[in-house]
Amino acid sequence: QKGELLGTGGYSVVHLGMDISTGKLIAIKQLTSTASTNSNVEREVELLVELTHPRIVHYLGLERTPTHLSILLEYVPGGSVASLLQKFGRFHESVIRAYTG
Hints:
By secondary structure, the protein is an alpha+beta fold.
C-alpha cells in the first residue's frame, strides 16, 4: 500500500509504503514503464539483488503494471546522508563514524 511521497528523481518518485501482510514499512520507487526504463530497471534490480551490505538498502521485489514499474526496497528512516548534510550541515567525526563504521 502506497503512502506519503518521500522524494523525486529524474525518472522516478519514491513513496513510503506498507507491506499489508506484515505491517512493515517499505520504500516504493515508482517509474513510468517504457522500453528504455524497463531495460534500466532490469539492470538496477540485478545489481540490487547481488548487493548485500548493512549500509545498502535491501531489494524486496518488483511489481509491474501496464503503465508503471515499482521497485520495492527496505525503508530507512532519516533519508540519505546527502539530505541530512543539507538539513544539518557538516557532521562531527563521531557522527561520520556511525554512518561508515
